[in-house]
Design goal:
Radius of gyration: 15 Å
Strand content: 25-35%
Helix content: under 10%
Number of strands: 4
Number of helices: 0
Strand order of the largest sheet: 1-2-3-4
C-alpha cells in the first residue's frame, strides 16, 4: 500500500491451479521496489504507478509439472509532451 495514495498494489506472484491440475503462475509489477530480474522483470524505466498490476511474466504448467508456455511481457513507458 502506498501511504500517500492510500491504495494496495496487489500481489507480486499469483499461482492459479485449474481443475485438471494445470497451473498458471503470473508475476505482476507492484511498484513496491521488488527486484525480480531473475524472473524476467525488465526495468528500463523507473518503477511508477503506470505499470502497477500489469503482468510481466506468465508460466503455464501441465498436470505433469512440465512448463508448456512461457510469456514475458515488456512494458515501455514514454513521457507525453
Amino acid at each position: 500500500m502506498t501511504a500517500a495514495a492510500g491504495e494496495f498494489s496487489g500481489f507480486a506472484v499469483v499461482t492459479n491451479t485449474m481443475p485438471l491440475c494445470a497451473t498458471t503462475v503470473t508475476y505482476f509489477h507492484t511498484g513496491g521496489g521488488q527486484k525480480l530480474f531473475d524472473f524476467g522483470r525488465i526495468t528500463r524505466t523507473p518503477a511508477t504507478s503506470a505499470k502497477r498490476s500489469m503482468a510481466y511474466r506468465v508460466e503455464t504448467y501441465g498436470n505433469d509439472n512440465n512448463l508448456y508456455k512461457f510469456v514475458v511481457n515488456q512494458v515501455d513507458q514514454n513521457q507525453l509532451q
